[in-house]
TrEMBL record, chains A, B:
EC number(s) per entry: 3.5.1.4
Protein name: amidase
Keywords, alphabetical: Hydrolase
Family as reported in the entry's similarity comment: Belongs to the amidase family.
Reaction it catalyzes: a monocarboxylic acid amide + H2O = a monocarboxylate + NH4(+)
Signal sequence segment: none
Domain Amidase: 82-538
Organism: Apiospora aurea
Pfam families: Amidase
PROSITE patterns with a match to the protein in the record: AMIDASES (PS00571)
Length: 551, 551
């Protein structure tokens, strides 16, 4: 592997980054046998593991919940190294199938696993648990100071750039005994709801390679959707955890409680709307585990923008009251999404919950998007466009979409910025008032909103051009969790040919749908709580899943 | 009283505002007798009430704590109207003595009092309690929708401007049964640590009219320092509650828990540093009462920037550990301030507390100020300078000081703003780390810092040119309470003639001091807690005052 210094063109630099990744994958041992070559990959990657991995590897990576696996590790009924090797190999397979990795930490993970196995006593809440991470987060501290870590955040201009400084969140996980083993892809600008960059190309959905795994944490979702990881760290500012989690039928949680100290992201210091890391997991308990461990380190003592509050589990003393948002007044969800809402709402009702409609047409989510899209880029996108220009890499279509094609985006004066923040706060206040009013006139106030995390199942590549179903909650700063509900069934999810789209976005989304295109793709739902009622959202999710017949 | 419409010059408009104020004061009945005319006012106003008010008025306004007076009101041992009239008359006297009011709410307060007296049962946590308020806050909702309220925020350009919209905080107090009775002055731009405007002139200190009552809530402090009010609402973004409270020896508390919905302030939507209303009171319990009542309304459900947290009283289970900041590394406090620190620290030590030094020279408070002063005016001050220009009123020297004379102030690009916010966050992180490190090596972590709220007692007019002792905690977003400690005693507080100032600010402050100039002026101290440890600050204040021999 050559040095980066002599490379001139953006293609050479991107090629260098991919060569680094490939070299990290070449360490896999034993080599993966029986993986189809790139041109012969099946549409769905779900059957590949059984063909490639050993029964024991399948058992380790598939047959345990996170809690169960942690229990086995802590009781030393299974070696950390054996678990690490199984996930490393499965992650390598996930990479072959979906192109989700920027680096496999083969040597580092095995060294770490051996160290943990050598301890006289298992230590830490995450003892031996493999954790995958979004690349731009970096992880210098956790990987030890002698390891040179580079972080590009998928900008060619940053390829090969050393990641200085430590990362509070990952240091915490490290202290609690985890094993970092894989780093995952993100799209150009980290601001697409898909995952494509000029450095690593396109990440695809493990259920259907013609669909996206979502974004921006789409490397994580593809990896976890293959069970090449069972707990990963994503980040969300407009849906970047929830959209990809939804698209592969895993769990994701967006809350603003965990810090970003040590991450490499454009827009540092921008206060209009802020992103936050969070969990992406194969089961619900993983979300809570992540939060408990992350907050046990009291990150607010280090990062002074975080709320000073431990993780404080909430329990409903009576069934929660749920408001169903059937659509957001802008874009009508596809039939499988509406069916998922209907089925889950019905299950909740049967379980004794009060279920009402969340009619938000009067609240104009479109107006919310007009505010939010401007707030994403108060510099008119100058910084990230400059980074793209610096290397000469092309601007990808979804970058153009989220910067150039948003009529609201422009470089603001300070006064324009203030006015926009006032509008944002007024919008938030109005929404909060609407929520409070559900409790007027002797009614019980709504506990959570049940809504789509996207207009449908995973979208075909290049078509993630409507953010409203996730980004709206970032605008409002409301906690939101995503969970799997069903899969697309062409027999049930028939296109409504009589529907007349309400606007151009609605038409774009309507035209996209045909049942066959999405057959068997996971369909997920989203539970949203009021601001800072993070724990209540997870408690509601417990009740909802119980109503759905899950443990 | 004429209409504003035909007035042309700024002097005429300011005159109109003063005529409005005078008309509101002319309603006082019986008229105040025995008030010296403006040219014959004594240096200290402290003996005026006994000469002007009735013994019963003195009793009502002076001889009860807030809790005690509330108890009498609730038990109906005293009429709300009698209390209101006593405070109205004393407030009018305070106006004559210190020029602290923009409006006396004579009719409104008496009408309100009569209404409360007419209720079959006393209702509300503030039943019958008179509350004074800083003018720019407005109070439309609380005063009833048919009352035309104007709010100028001391800008001539805004004189006579109707105050639309309601005010969450004041609505809450109103719902809890209070009586609003007086509105108080603030300086031009609301960004001086004194209180002078072209609308209302200069507010003076009730202990010494050659000294300032502080600012920007200096109308409140002068009024409460005269016991023309016992509980008032100020606001703080750089010391605007704490500086004036300190200068008149009352209590003040700066925390970011209470909303500003409905206030009229320049800089709406600016997120770099935000101000917040808070209590200014004659006793410590008043601070906690204010917070409890303000938060009982769950303002975070209405104003979506507020932390979702009830007021949660804190109790020390062992004596707090106190760090004394003898100076801030920039400006050496005057001798009476250092004596106050020494006496209180000594009392704390005697009461069994661990008392250590807060050595902050390495943390460079000057660097903090360089960041903060720029963050106050990311628009280079354009908005407020524009407001001043609009009417043609002169720019006052302390406005020039805080905008033109700060080398850091300029209109920022978005990227410059982001960089500055990063610097702010790094500074905050470094300070938090320093605080955490007090707990290293088996030591107990410091609970609170005890420090000066100013370099000395109240400053002579026009000389409040050093904000470091209060504004630093705004930069860090640390809660801070101010309480009275002692008074200047020329026999004890001798000038150190051998001291060599360290820099030009230090020289300015050093040169200002001579014991006689400040004789008998109140000297106050400040208790500061870590971010969001608001309740702990008040708990520490309880312990400290107990150590000082107070109840």
């Amino acid at each position: 592997m050559g040095s980066l210094v002599h490379l001139q063109s953006w293609e050479e630099k991107a090629g260098w980054a991919r060569a680094q990744r490939d070299a990290s994958l070449a360490k896999v041992e034993p080599e993966l046998g029986g993986v189809p070559d790139a041109h012969n990959m099946p549409l769905s990657s779900q059957d590949l593991p059984k063909a490639v991995l050993t029964p024991r590897e399948i058992e380790i990576t598939e047959q345990y919940t996170i809690t169960k696996l942690l229990g086995l590790l802590r009781k030393r009924k299974i070696k950390v190294e054996e678990v690490a090797r199984a996930f490393l190999r499965r992650a390598a397979l996930a990479q072959a199938a979906t192109n989700c990795l920027t680096e496999l930490l083969w040597d580092e993970a095995i060294e770490r696993a051996k160290h943990l196995d050598s301890l006289p006593e298992p230590r830490g809440a995450l003892f031996g648990l493999p954790i995958s991470t979004k690349e731009h987060h970096g992880m210098v501290g956790a990987m030890g100071k002698n390891k040179a870590v580079t972080t590009s955040a998928s900008f060619v201009a940053w390829v090969g750039r050393e990641h200085g400084g430590s990362n509070l969140l990952y240091d915490t996980f490290w202290d609690q005994g985890c094993v970092f083993f894989a780093r995952t892809t993100q799209p150009q600008t980290i601001m697409h709801l898909e995952t494509e960059s000029n450095v690593y190309g396109k990440t695809v959905n493990p259920y259907n390679r013609e669909l996206t795994s979502g974004g921006s944490s789409g490397g994580e979702s593809a990896l976890i959707g293959m069970r090449g990881s069972i707990l990963g760290v994503g980040g969300d500012i407009g849906g970047s955890i929830r959209c990809p989690a939804a698209h592969v039928g895993i769990y994701g949680f967006n809350i603003k409680r965990v810090g970003t100290t040590g991450f490499r992201t454009p827009g540092a210091g921008k206060e209009t709307i802020s992103g936050c890391p969070g969990p992406m997991t194969v089961d619900r308990d993983g979300l809570e585990l992540f939060m408990k461990v992350a907050l046990s380190a009291k990150p607010w003592r280090v990062e002074p923008s975080l709320t000073v509050k431990e993780w404080t589990p909430y329990t409903f003393t009576r069934p929660p009251k749920i408001a169903v948002q059937w659509w957001d007044g802008v874009v009508r969800p596809h039939p499988p999404m509406t069916r998922a809402l209907r089925e889950v709402a019905e299950a909740c009702r049967k379980a004794g919950m009060e279920v009402v409609d969340w009619d938000c047409e009067g609240l104009s989510h479109q107006k919310g998007w007009d505010i939010l899209s401007a707030l994403y880029w108060p510099d008119g996108g100058k910084e990230v466009l400059g980074l793209i220009k610096e290397s000469g890499e092309p601007i990808l279509p979804l970058t153009k979409f989220i910067i150039h094609e948003q009529p609201t985006v422009k470089e603001l004066t300070q006064h324009e910025l203030w006015q926009l923040c006032v509008k944002r706060d007024e919008y938030r206040a109005r929404y909060a008032q609407a929520w409070s009013q559900t409790g007027d006139g002797g009614n019980r106030e709504v506990d959570v909103i049940l809504c789509p995390p996207s207009f449908g199942a995973a979208t075909p590549h290049g078509q993630s051009r409507y953010w409203g179903y996730t980004a709206h909650w970032n605008l409002l700063d409301y906690p939101a969790a995503v969970f799997p509900a069903t899969k697309v069934d062409p027999a049930l999810d028939i296109k409504d040919l009589s529907y007349v789209p309400k606007n151009s976005q609605d038409r774009f989304v309507y035209d996209m749908y045909s049942p066959e295109r999405f057959r068997n793709a996971p369909v997920s739902l989203q539970v949203v709580g009021r601001r800072q009622e993070d724990e209540k959202v997870l408690a509601a999710l417990v009740e909802i899943e119980r109503a759905m017949g899950r443990a």
